[in-house]
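Entry for the shared binder. Reason: the reviewer on the internal report wants the predicted structure included alongside the sequence.
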Amino acid sequence: MVSAVLAGGAVARAQPTAAPLRIAYRAEAGCPTEADFRARVSARLRRALAEADAASAYVVTLEKRDGRFVGRLGVRGADGTASDRDVAGDTCDDVVAALAVVTALAIDARTADAPAAVAAPVAAASASTASAPPRPAGSGLARSPAPPPPAGSARTRPPAPAPAPDAATHLTLGAQFLLGERIGTPAFGARIFAEPPVGATDHGVAPLRFGAGLETASDIPVAGGSAAFLLVALAADACPLGATAGALHLAPCARVEGGLLAASRRGVAPVRSVTRGWLAIALPVRARLPLWGPFVLDVEAGMRMPLLRDGLLVQGADVVARPPPLEVVSALGLGVTIP
């Protein structure tokens, strides 16, 4: 009788063991190991693993591109469905942590299918119990199946925040307010810009930028009256180097500008005006700070050197106005990163 009770208790404690997750993990040297990744995923799960979870495969790859780490999670379902998610970051550990969260969410999202998966082992256990010989009376308490996980538990969990888009690997559009100097007098203007996703950098600033701007200055004193200037120019920036201090990204840039500079002279009769070609190089330092979601604050300041310094207002053979050899330029703007 005692041995029968012990045998019944042993059967009652036997539980089906869930198969381990099917994870294919490939990472650069120095990145967290596969065991560390599995531990991070398990720590973020809201439920115990079931046999049905082993039907899906999770493919994790991590590699370093242009000084940054890029990770990808590929989920391959037993029904043939497939989905991929990419994450980029400054360190491999940050990318692995983000992929662990995404993987745990993908596993928890399958809780809606859990009742069917749990029902199969219970039904199999019932069938084996029915085919087994009847136990003697009083051999032990009847075993009751473990309750299924609460329905909707995965739906009530708030989703993890998505990583902020990397401005250096996505298209960024923006506008700037310009403040500079024109022959000793403040000049104001505006510029629109676009940063194509040509490649990532290790300092969070796009390596290339193209822009179109307009600057104006008026009431500039010149011989015999005053002058007003209007500059319309296209610009191309290159920012191959930089540094990062927390969320702030800094980069020195080189810029080439080309366009037209128009000037008009007032206070004398007749009013004189002239238009000249404009070509200049500039060396601004750009600072970028992520604000919220896809929005970034863009600030820059530097020096500009006009290469064409022909006289703008000519009276007889006397040059009335000429651009200075160096000009101060600055800008404050807002950009939006488009995934």
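Summary line for the report: Confidence is low (pLDDT under 50) at residues 1-17, 114-144, 151-157, 160-167.
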